[in-house]
Specification:
With about 575 residues, the chain is of the alpha+beta class. The chain folds into four domains: about 5-105, Nucleic acid-binding proteins (OB fold (Dihydrolipoamide Acetyltransferase, E2P), Beta Barrel); about 140-270 and about 530-570, BirA Bifunctional Protein, domain 2; about 275-280 and about 425-520, Bira Bifunctional Protein, Domain 2 (BirA Bifunctional Protein, domain 2), CATH 3.30.930; about 295-415, GAD-like domain (Gyrase A, domain 2, 2-Layer Sandwich). The chain has 13 helices and 22 strands. The chain has an eight-stranded mixed sheet, with helices on both faces. A five-stranded antiparallel sheet has the order 3-2-1-4-5, with no helix packed on it. The termini are far apart.
């Protein structure tokens, strides 16, 4: 039996079910857990599979068993080797069983409304309604314990690098950051509201002004936005901020922490993390969160169609990708790809099956006969396509062509979440602004406290959409794990950024006054980052949805099926908060 802390004897048990093995033969043990299965062999012999969080062990009982599945029991007995031919290689304890058993029922159980056995799949709504039962399943136990392992590894890395753990408030002041905030009415100040923080962003910057130098916390964050597989209303992140550092320092610390977490889970550390620019990621992979586990990079064919007479390729940019062996796809599959491209906003999707012709490689395609010889040669040379491959091309403006093909690349080539190696990549030099708002002002791509790239500061007023920021994302297997930036700490640069955003001094003071006031008293250069722990753990666990690594998740509609939340408040509770229920909409 293991000598780990989890095996320390208690007043009720001497150890854990899943830790028994041949070394424990002839030991008398006391175990506690749930009845996983019971099997009776006549009137004088019965078998009971006893389960706790560590695993399952078989118990042999003389006489009939007066227990049901999921009853909570205590078993005392002697560890024996299983008879020859009865070993169970699927169980960690499959070489032993418990004999001479005495059994005590600690709590009786009704028949569970959801199956606890792994081989039976239950409806997600039913699982969430009885989440406390769903969490008994081996997979869910493993997922949440894996999460605890990741948290512990990240904490150790932060402590080793001199970061101080500090909790920031959950009742905060409204500070619009792009997503909707949850509002909390004040009982003592009728008509006024707190908000639940989308992140500790402004609080951690204040901690830098306060001189804490290096801060971190595993922070709960809330955003009132639509949920999906990798996003939910409340989430957890490793949040950190440091003073007197630059971008490279933050990337080094985060890379080390993530490598520690990966090693704690998988037993091996990832190599050095590749770093690419946002523009390079978009051009090569069609997205700012590239999945680096597979190739299929986008190629630019614009030069080959500069003087084309084909309307299908008359566009500022022509991008393409090659699906190796895709020439075997039927017309129905290809038409579905064309429909998918159009749904993504593309004017169309050109395709070419590469085949062997009388004079070398040729194309099978509705457009093949209309290509000039130099255009056909340009496509083959640019894509390096071989016989049997499928070339897909989009002609549009650069960003649209990249994004359409980037989506098709993931659709056609990406391994499942739990497959392949863990491939991290840093994406840096994001645009400072993204597009213009209704008033013609550029909109902040990150947040208004992100430091512009020093090489682009001179263009802040003359050409703001060309300005890069000192911001960075960490991506793992096509999932954005988190983002961060070097912050603005100089009042003159902050004023210029606010001016570019169309924020008057009065508006800036109304929205961010407490932070701007703090900066007047000496703000150090600082930078930070936040890692989405739910996403990191989901990838480590091989799960498609972060809800599978959250103890008590909400559904996609934001409902808590177990507790019934959200619920209406009573009229008395509303009155105490100074609220009046609006009449129901017709």
């Amino acid at each position: 039996m293991s000598d780990g802390a989890t095996d320390r004897a208690t007043s009720m048990r001497t150890g854990l079910c899943g830790h028994l093995g041949p070394a424990d033969v002839d030991r008398r043990v006391a175990l506690c857990g749930w009845v996983a299965r019971r099997r009776e062999h006549g009137e004088h012999l019965a078998f009971l599979d006893l389960r706790d969080h560590s695993g399952i062990v078989q118990c042999v009982v003389d006489g009939r068993l007066e227990v049901r599945s999921e009853d909570v029991v205590r078993v005392e007995g002697v560890v024996r080797r299983r008879p020859e031919g009865t070993l169970n290689p699927r169980l960690a304890t499959g070489e032993v069983e418990i004999h001479d058993c005495t059994l005590e029922v600690l709590a009786a159980a009704e028949t569970p409304p959801v199956p606890i056995e792994e081989r039976v799949e239950a409806d997600e709504a039913l699982r969430f309604r009885y989440r406390y039962l769903d969490l008994r399943r081996t997979k869910m136990q493993a997922n949440l314990r894996l999460r605890a392992t990741v948290n512990a590894a990240l904490r150790r890395a932060m402590e080793r690098n001199g970061f101080c753990e500090i909790e920031t408030p959950l009742l905060w002041s409204p500070t619009p950051e792009g997503a909707r905030e949850f509002a909390v009415p004040s009982r003592l100040h009728h008509g006024s509201f707190y908000v639940l923080p989308q992140s500790p962003q402004l609080a951690k910057q204040l901690l830098m002004v306060a001189g804490f130098d290096r801060y971190y916390q595993i922070a709960r964050c809330m955003r009132d936005e639509d949920t999906r597989a990798d996003r939910t209303l409340e989430f957890t992140q490793l949040d950190l901020e440091a003073s007197f550092v630059g971008q490279d320092d933050v990337l080094a610390v985060v890379s080390e922490a993530v490598a520690d977490a990966s090693e704690a889970v998988t037993g091996s550390r990832p190599g050095d993390i590749t770093r690419i620019s946002w523009a390079d990621a978009l051009d090569r992979f069609g997205t700012d969160k590239p999945d680096m586990r597979f190739a299929m990079e986008l190629v630019d064919l614009s030069a080959s169609f500069e003087d084309t007479s084909l309307r299908a390729f008359s566009a500022p940019c022509v991008k393409a990708l090659v699906l190796a062996g895709g020439g075997s796809l039927g017309r129905g599959r290809i038409d579905a790809l064309v429909d998918r491209a159009r749904a993504l906003g593309s004017p169309g999707l050109a395709w070419f099956k590469v085949v062997s012709g009388p004079d070398g490689l040729a194309f099978e395609s509705p457009l093949a006969a209309h290509l000039a010889e130099d255009e056909r040669a340009g496509v083959l040379a640019g894509t390096e396509a071989r016989e049997g491959d499928l070339v897909l091309a989009v002609a549009a403006d650069h960003d649209l062509a990249c994004k359409v093909l980037g989506s098709l690349r993931v659709h056609l080539g990406a391994p499942a979440v739990g497959e392949g190696e863990h491939r991290y990549v840093w994406v840096v030099d994001f645009p400072m602004f993204e597009g213009l708002d209704d008033a013609g002002n550029p909109a902040a791509a990150h947040h208004p406290f992100t430091m512009p790239h020093p090489e682009d500061l001179e263009h802040l007023e003359s050409d703001p959409l060309s300005v890069r920021s000192q911001s960075y994302d960490l991506v793992l297997n096509g999932w954005e794990l988190g983002s961060g930036s070097v912050r603005i700490h100089r009042a003159d640069i902050q004023r210029r950024v606010f001016d570019a955003l169309g924020l008057s001094p009065e508006d800036a003071q109304a929205r961010f006054g407490f932070l701007l006031d703090a900066f007047r008293y000496g703000a150090p250069p600082h930078a930070g980052f936040a890692i989405g722990l739910d996403r990191l753990v989901a990838i480590f666990a091989g799960e498609e949805s972060i809800r599978e690594v959250i103890a008590f998740p909400k559904t996609q509609s934001g409902a808590d099926l177990m507790t019934g939340a959200p619920k209406a408040l009573s009229e008395a509770a509303l009155s105490e908060l100074g609220l009046v229920r609006a009449p129901a909409k017709k």
